Amino acid sequence: MTDVYDIRMLTSDNTYFSRGKGGVLQGVVEDKPYEELVVYRAFPFRYATEYISVRDPKGEELGIVRDLAELNEESAAELMKELQFRYFLPKVTRVDSVKLKSELWLWELQTRMAMRNLHEHLLYPGGGRIILTDLYGKRCEISDWRALDAHSRRQLEEVL
Questions:
Q1: Residue 93, pLDDT score
Q2: At residue 115, does pLDDT exceed 70?
Q3: pLDDT of residue 34
């Protein structure tokens, strides 16, 4: 991009994404082929499939995909797969307990991966969704705390 404030919007008309050797995301952006591309969510907690920054391996932004739904099916699927790799976020299926000990919140959760001793850092992006972050920066997500079982909701009452 020539102007640092210029935002190039990428669409199915000027962009195509696929997988190269070894599963690396590659593509063609405005008729220029790239053997490796890196993607980031501009708003990772609010818009999972919108405002996707596409960059070259050096980190230079090539453009923004406004919405994955506006791309062709293969390109959208490859970008979604790449985003899932980058933003792995385990889903919480149950809250076993939440206790305050020595000024530290101790959370026992059921997820697809083990997480204990979650710090009291909570984000509320909306719609009942909660992002929890532990002391080491690992994150997990409660998609909608209102949809959890009664025991889990009772455990959360004290901290929400």
A1: 87
A2: no
A3: 96
- Tokens 């026992």 identify what position? 108
> In angstroms, rounded to a whole number, what is the distance separating the alpha carbons of residues 152 and 109?
9
Placement of tokens 């455990």 in the chain: 155
- Per the prediction, the chain carries an average pLDDT of 85
> Measured between alpha carbons, how far is 23 from 51 in angstroms, rounded to an integer?
23
Tell me how far apart the alpha carbons of residues 156 and 98 are, in angstroms, rounded to a whole number: 7
Residues 6+ apart with CB under 8 A from 125: 45, 46, 131
pLDDT tens-place string over residues 76-102:
999 998 898 787 777 888 888 888 888
> What is the C-alpha separation between 89 and 45, in angstroms, rounded?
11
Q: How far apart are the first and last CA of the chain?
A: 44
Residues 6+ apart with CB under 8 A from 117: 104, 106, 107, 134, 135
